[in-house]
Amino acid sequence: MRVVVLFGSEMGTAEAVAECVADELSAHDVSVHDMTDFDIDDLDIDAFHIIVCSTYGDGELPTGAEPFFDALEAGKPDLTGLTFAVFGLGDSVYGDTFNRGGEIAAELLTARGATQIGEHGRHDASSEIRVKDMARDWARALPCTSDAVSVS
């Protein structure tokens, strides 16, 4: 199975987490891409997509993810058949905007017809749980890690 990991980061943490998730899924054909450099035309319904996205400012997408999602909104591609999972990064100290970046990403993809599967991962920087440890556990639980589950 082909797995495409896309990350949107402000400070680099989401990139490090994306690499960690890719390592955990190394039994598959995995590639990692910065959303800044990923064209929406390269979204492939035959691949499983993983979005690793931080939250920035007042609950917004990080700067690195904005061009990708702006193009998604402008181009309005039909993503019916595309499956994805989201691992968000945030800090609960920000209250209502906690982990909003990942939620926005999921909303924009599902609005175009894509299907979110698996648990929406939400790391809290205020917790004692290390983000890479949580990401590894989350990745191991994804449906794409089971040979019995087909996501394409």
Task: Provide a compact summary of the structure.
By secondary structure, this protein is an alpha/beta fold. It has helices at residues 13-24, 66-75, 100-111, 131-140; strands at 2-8, 29-34, 48-54, 83-90, 115-116, 121-124. Strands 1, 2, 3, 4, 5 and 6 form a 6-stranded parallel sheet that branches.
What features would you describe in this structure?
By secondary structure, the protein is an alpha/beta fold. It has a single domain (2-145), classed as 3-Layer(aba) Sandwich (Rossmann fold), CATH 3.40.50. The protein is built from four helices and six strands. It has helices at residues 13-24, 66-75, 100-111, 131-140, and strands spanning 2-8, 29-34, 48-54, 83-90, 115-116, 121-124. Strands 1, 2, 3, 4, 5 and 6 form a six-stranded parallel beta sheet that branches. Strand 1 (2-8), helix 1 (13-24) and strand 2 form a beta-alpha-beta unit. Helix 1 runs parallel beside helix 4 (131-140). The longest helix is centred in the first third of the chain and has 12 residues, at 13-24. The N and C termini lie close together (9 Å). Mean pLDDT is 93; it is low at 147-152.
Biggest β-sheet strands, sense, barrel: 6 strands, parallel
H-E order: EHEEHEHEEH
Instruction: Write out the CATH superfamily name.
Output: Flavodoxin domain
Tell me the Rg in angstroms: 14 Å
Q: How many structural domains can be distinguished in the coordinates?
A: 1
Summarize model confidence as the mean pLDDT. 93
Shape: globular
Query: CATH topology, anyone?
Result: Rossmann fold
Count the helices. How many? Answer: 4
Q: Find the count of extended strands (DSSP E, 2+ residues).
A: 6
In the CATH scheme, the class would be: Alpha Beta
CATH architecture: 3-Layer(aba) Sandwich
Portion in helices: 25-40%
Residue stretches low in confidence (pLDDT < 50, at least 5 long) are 147-152
User: How far apart are the first and last residues' alpha carbons, in Å?
Assistant: 9 Å
Portion in strands: 15-25%
Structural class: alpha/beta
